[in-house]
Amino acid sequence: MYAGSLMAPEIREAGTPLRVLLVDDSWEFLGSVEHFLSAEPRLKIIGYASTGQEALEQVNLLRPDLVLMDLAMPKMNGLVAARQIKAQANAPRVVILTVHNQPEYREAVQAAGADGFISKSDFGAQVLPLIENLFAQATVA
Fold first, then answer.
1. pLDDT tens across 31-83, in order?
2. Residue 51 domain-assigned (yes or no)
3. Which domain holds residue 85?
4. What band does 2 get if pLDDT is binned at 50, 70 and 90?
5. CATH number, position 118
6. What percent of the chain has pLDDT above 90?
7. For a tag site, which of 3, 88, 93, 134 has the least CB within 10 Å?
8. What is the residue-wise DSSP string for the chain?
9. Number of domains in the chain
C-alpha cells in the first residue's frame, strides 16, 4: 500500500505500530474510523475520548504517537485541546478532523499548532497519506 515510512526509526522500534488516540463526540464516527484504520497494521488504536478535556487526559495517560481529533466537541473543542497538547514536551502529532472544509477553519487549525487537517468527507482518501507524510518527516535515510 505505502512504502513503509510510517515507522520513523529514531522514535519507533522496527515493526512497532503507531499508537493512535481517536477523539470525537460521535461514537458512530469513531466506530467508522476504527473500522477503517484497523485494516492498516502499522496503526494501533490505543484509546478514545469524546471531549477535548478527555483527550488531554488520555494523551497524558496513554502517550499516543498520533491524535486524530474532531474540531467541534462539547466542553473543550479540538482547537483548544490541540493547542494544549502541542504545548507539552514530546507532544504527539495532532490531526484535526471536521465537517467544515472552509479556509478559515484550516487557518485556525494551523494557528492552534495542529499537524494536519482533514475534512471528514475526505477522511478515507486523505488520512493514510497524511499520516505517511507526518511520520516520514522524521525518517532518517
1. 999 999 999 999 999 999 999 999 999 999 999 999 999 999 988 999 999 99
2. yes
3. 18-135
4. very low
5. 3.40.50.2300
6. 74
7. 3
8. ---STTS-TTTS-TTPPEEEEEE-S-HHHHHHHHHHHTT-TTEEEEEEESSHHHHHHHHHHH--SEEEEESS-SSS-HHHHHHHHHTSTTPPEEEEEES---HHHHHHHHHTT-SEEEEGGGHHHHHHHHHHHHHHTT---
9. 1
